[in-house]
Design brief:
Blueprint (H helix, E strand, L loop, with lengths): L14 H12 L6 H7 L3 E11 L2 E7 L4 H10 L2 E5 L4 H13 L4 E5 L18 E9 L2 E5 L7 E3 L1 H8 L11 E6 L7 H16 L7 H36 L4 H20 L2 H28 L9 H23 L4
Antiparallel strand pairs: 1-2, 3-8, 4-5, 4-8, 5-6, 6-7
């Protein structure tokens, strides 16, 4: 049995930022999940109609998997190692070797093959992050950030989760810190994270990302019934809601988390304007939640004539306008 007594599980709102916080705290760096999320510039928006996920156009409210860990590590001066594998045997051998050394390891996995998830939540999503921190009686000890307590998984299920097929393929990816800085100076990492988030939301020239992407999707939503028919319109809209409210933390949840980051950064850097912007971003998160609620009613045909696809598009345009104003103000903050 591998010694696992020193790892402390903590529940979080989102898998990757939760893993970052848990791994870094295990190695002595006291960092909250919102701070990890903000320094890693996790907030984002993108709609990719040509990238199909289970046959439905993809929508994302966060940066690509692994970016939060990589960016936060680099900006905070943490040396990390990341490995992917072609062979399940080599992947599990490498994992066992790190656990034998007492090193908790972050893994990329598919939600569908995690038996400790309730059946209703086990769908084909291949970018879920978790920590494996030990072995006991042949099973692996798991700190899954979205679970309230630590759990365990059998080797066969873990192999299936690490090598699930589909987009994106986890390919047995594992990652972990190998060296931590002696001291953390927070100002520059926070500034870099904010600058990148503002770039993501305002300055990517392709009109599929940031606030431009929100407006692009809003127009498509308004055309869904005529462009793809009622059945597909419901499926497409349902996936937008699912990506917002069920996959990871989702759109509104990410806004609330980024707001918490801004408020924590305001205290860390003594910049009250960041706290003000955090409060305002919380209100934007409420707009997204209202959109999801109304969209869900439309999907279930419970809105009658009160809410239409056109109305939903207008709501998303309102979200885009609010975020554009907020991130332009955030971009002007002097550090």
């Amino acid at each position: 049995m591998i010694n696992h007594s020193t790892f402390q599980h903590a529940q979080s709102a989102h898998c990757e930022s939760g893993v970052v916080s848990n791994l870094f705290r295990h190695h002595g760096m006291q960092i909250s999940e919102p701070m990890a999320f903000g320094i890693g510039a996790g907030i984002f928006f993108g709609h990719l109609p040509f990238v199909k996920v289970n046959g439905v156009p993809g929508t994302t409210y966060r940066t690509f998997p692994g970016a939060i860990f990589n960016k936060a590590s680099k900006r905070l001066g943490v040396t990390v190692r990341s490995e992917s594998f072609r062979s399940p045997e080599k992947a599990m051998q490498a994992l066992d070797e790190k656990l034998a050394q007492g090193t908790p390891v972050g893994l990329l996995s598919s939600v569908y093959y995690l038996p400790y998830f309730p059946p209703a939540y086990r769908f084909h999503f291949n970018a879920h992050n978790l920590v494996v921190y030990g072995k006991k009686d042949g099973n692996y000890l798991v700190s899954d950030p979205i679970m309230d307590v630590a759990t365990e998984i059998d080797p066969e299920s873990l192999v299936a989760a690490r090598f699930a097929k589909g987009f994106p393929e986890p390919k047995g990816k594992m990652y972990y810190p190998v060296a931590m800085p002696d001291q953390v100076k927070w100002e520059k990492p926070i500034q870099q994270g904010i600058e990148q988030a503002c770039h993501y939301m305002l300055k990517i020239p392709v009109p599929l990302f940031g606030v431009k992407g929100m407006r692009f999707l809003a127009k498509r939503i308004q055309k869904y019934p005529h462009a793809v028919g009622d059945r597909k319109a419901g499926l497409f809209l349902g996936n937008v809601i699912r990506m917002q409210e069920e996959i990871g933390t989702g759109g509104a949840g990410f806004r609330f988390m980024y707001a918490a980051f801004l408020q924590e950064a305001a205290q860390q850097l003594n910049k009250p304007v960041l706290s003000t912007l955090g409060t305002e971003l919380t209100a934007v998160g409420d707009l997204w939640r209202n959109f999801a609620f109304q969209a869900g009613r439309v999907c279930k045909s419970r809105a009658g004539d009160e809410t239409s696809y056109k109305d939903l598009g207008d709501m998303m345009v309102q979200c885009a306008a609010a975020e554009e104003v907020l991130f332009r103000r955030l971009a002007q903050v002097k550090f």
